[in-house]
Amino acid sequence: MNKSKLLQLWLILLCFLFPLAVRAQQSIIINGNNVVPKIEFPGISQADFQDAFNVLNECLVAKVPVDGFIYPFMSPGGAYGKTWWQLDGSLTLSGSKWVNQGFAENVLRNFVIVQKPDGRIPLYGPDMYNLDMFDTADSFKCSSLPKLFEVAYDVVRRTNDTALVRITYTCLKKYLDWWLSYSFRRDKLSGLITGLFEESLPSDETHCFVKAPVDLNVEVAIGCANVAKLADKLGFSADYKKYSSLEKALKNSINNYMWDNTTGAYYAYFVKEKKLEKRLVCYTFDPFKLCIAPQNRIQKMVQMLVNNKYFNWNNNAITSAAKTDKVYNESVGTYNGSPAWEGDIWSLRNETVIQGLEDIGRYDLSSHLALKTVKLFNAKYAEFIKPSDGSGQGQPRYGWSASQYIQIIIEKIFGVDYNKFTGTITIMPGLDEGLIGKDISLDSLLLPNGNRLNLSISDRPKRVSVKYNITGEGNNMNIVLALPANNRNAYTAVDFKNDTLKLKKIIKGAAKIYQFSNGTKPNGEISFINK
CATH 3.40.30.10: does it fit domain 420-530? Predict the structure, then answer.
């Protein structure tokens, strides 16, 4: 037996045996009053917030094993059945990790178990598809848009389980190597990753391995970045250098082959014909992430994003295809394939742009889109939203929509981040101007260490006040309070006793971020005040 097979068996055995006590729990409770945080937020009732968690519970598959998964997981919801999907199974962790870190960690163990010897993680559990649509039997070996790279890293950087960090690193590394292989996947000339079917959204069944989509290549670049960070954390210096180099190379390929300077947008690239596919869909903004797009292009991209004629920025935003593109379509009813990705609004697309805008330092725009997205999906949690009237379409109780709604509220608007790797809890609210004059709060938010965070924020024209309190066992995490300047003036920081505090200013992209470290103090109050 070769070393790779021995390693695979060892990882599977580890997933079975650790921890058995958690595996024996065949259900999770994410709708009890003692688990779901209490929220006060304009336009969002506690019942609305609770219902997002109810949707996740409805998606829960507790009776396992199912198609290789031995721990409970979440199906997409609705008519999609009770099996797992790589994309849905990943994205449902974005919100559920905030009420059950152990559940999220066990889903990662599931992915380790079902990973193929060559590193591929299948599209979904049965791993079967109609071969007639593809050129060869080998090309049937597909996956899906690999959001796992981002979500898995986000889960393990919150964990106390060092063994989980290691097995997740090995899993992600093998998965990344599969995407980066030159066998079918990576074009030798351009260095871009080609795909098929739901490895990009909108999906494409007609251009297998001849088209390199923007979203797929950005997600693989994120995979390179996160595998490199895990390698660095684990002390694997050679792997850190390797995947950092691959990240840089893939970023260069995206910029060299997918950008059209005339229109100021990124497009999919046909690797054999050596030309762009001039369909203007929302993934044109994915290169905001990791600051892939160079600074001299970002201005053009932002101008397109906020120009209402393209992606409906001023109204129900953002459309998954430009309104000016011939493919634009507003789908209604149940999901009917790619047309729903060519006009309708998806939380996946919006969250990607929100994160990208943060990466380039445009917190004014990211906070605006975050608030707009939460309002659109609030009390709906539908698969997608029809732009013209804001109605929920597709499956009415859809797992990843509910999950990302929760994520955006907690992580983007309240701005809570928990990072065990750095030993830091960061509170950096993303406050759109629509919240000026409002008070918002999030109480009893469960942290991965079992403590609870109570957080209240008051937003006024010349003062933003943040108050936090951590309850439970002694806090050993460093607390950082921060605020981006956005379009407002520069801030100084004072506490409520008007004692001057030392404030650190960070420049990130187009933003100034003002932050204050409060050590490991379990409570604190700070105001950011205009000069």
Answer: no
